[in-house]
Here is the input.
Amino acid sequence: MENKTISEAAEHFAVPESTLRYYEKKGLLPHLQRDEAGRRLFSEFHMTLLKVILNLKRTHMPLSSIRQYVAWVVEGEQTTQLRLDMMLKHRQAVLHEIEEMHKALDGITIKIERYEERVDGWKSNDDSIHRKEVHL
Here is the structure.
C-alpha cells in the first residue's frame, strides 16, 4: 500500500483532518513521515494504528490510555502482555457500558410504550386531548 495523505486518511475513516492533526500533536501517531512539501504521509502501519485508535476512542478510552497503548506498540513485542492486559480491561469496561446502555434503552422503550398507549387513547376519545393533567 502506498502512503496516504491526510485528506485520504481522513476520508477513509470519515473523520476531520483536524482530528488527525490533533492525534499527531498528542503523540498518538508517532513517526509520521512527511513529503517534500511537509505534508503528512500515513503509511500502512499508521492506517492500521489509526483504526485501532479510533475504535478505542469510540469506546471511550481516555486519550492518556490510548497514548500509553501507542507507546507500547512503538516499544515492540516485549510490551505485548501489557497491551493484552489493557485490551482485556477495556473490553470489560465496554461490556459494562453496553449493559448500562441496554438498561437505559429499556427505560426509554417503556416510556415510548406509555406515550403510544396515551396517544392511542386520545384517538379513541377526543376529550382527553384537552386535559391539563401533566403525565411524565
In short: The longest strand covers residues 40-42. The chain has a mean pLDDT of 92.
